[in-house]
Amino acid sequence: MAIILFDNAVRAHFYPLTQTRAIAGLRMGIATIRERWSLWTREPVYVHTTGYLQQLYESPAAETHLWIDATALPSAELLSALSDIEEGVCLADEQGLIAGKAQIAFESFNPANSLHYFKEVRKYAQARRIQHPWHLTQYNDFLLRQDFDLLVEGRNSQPIPETNRVSQPEVIFIEEGAVVEHCIINAATGPVYIGKNATIMEGSAIRGPFALGEGAAVKMNSRIYGATTIGPWCLGGGEIKNSILMGYSNKAHDGYLGDSVVGEWCNFGAGATNSNVKNTAGMVQVWDEQSGAFIPAAQKCGVFMGDYSRVAINAAINTGSVIGVSCNVFGNGLLPKRIKDFSWGTEGAVYELDKALEDIGNWKKMKQQTVSEAEASVLAFIFAHHSK
């Protein structure tokens, strides 16, 4: 038996982050949702998502599996309840199916009718779920602490070099190959996880909870506040607070990034800065692709940036901005709050697909990667269906 994390209609609320990945691929804390379920259960985890994205994920063998809504976060209580269910039984709350055990044809599974696959529906107290992209930053503090405990249990950290000044070293974990010298690390406010072969350069100040992924780097004299996640092979620099960089993205220079979620293969030019609070200190409105309208999000809300997008040097990013997939963003003054997929600048010009793929390939070469056929196919689908 394996776990299958499935997408439902809620995935549209996570635009632009779920244009290029299933909900299970979203990173919060140290891990992605898929990785987190694997850590909790030690079972193989598969993904069921919308048609054009399914090519990015393997399909499981046809047998009985545990089907779980990808927006539901694991907990000891939920796993205890799931351990007692038999085949044909599921758990549900007011929002619908949480998880259930059944043999369902993978290709024909319909998340809109997910309860119909089970002969018995057991009520469960409201599960902890994510519903919008700003929930990723709102849960990041909690999940950084939870993931840290899961990842380091029974393991020993690499020694903390004496050149560093640290508080509460017992909740600082350094993986093999990481380089951390001449830094200030305050783990009194939360645990600090430094991934395999990662680097924190001289003069940087880190305040937990914080995670730095495998192969990632924090540039010299950076100021990183919790709760921040800098994912695998990212570059972090300047001032970053309560933000998530999914992976392979660069925010390497001075400038502020706060209360934001950045996809993969993104780049911030030197001096680029986002606003995360309105001058009125009022509720921030964020574009919701599913409803086609701006909706209230939170009092603090930065930028949500889709994969393969880049912003120019000294860019001034508005509060609660949404930048689509594969955008080359530049313009005068404060940038628009909504920038569509494949935008070239902010005046309505289109970033043509062939040029976009060529430029993405150039960025990938810088990290010894190439554009796969599946990635190109996904981008071609998004380009064909984006609103020009």
Automatic annotation (TrEMBL):
Record has Transferase as a keyword: yes
Pfam families: NTP_transf_4 (PF13562)
Entry annotated with the keyword Heme: no
Keywords annotated in UniProt: Acyltransferase, Transferase
Alphabetical list of InterPro entries matching this protein: Bifunctiontional_GlmU_bac-type (IPR023917), GlmU-like (IPR050065), Trimer_LpxA-like_sf (IPR011004)
Superkingdom field: Bacteria
GO-annotated molecular function: acyltransferase activity; nucleotidyltransferase activity
SUPFAM superfamilies (UniProt xref): Trimeric LpxA-like enzymes
Protein name: UDP-N-acetylglucosamine diphosphorylase/glucosamine-1-phosphate N-acetyltransferase
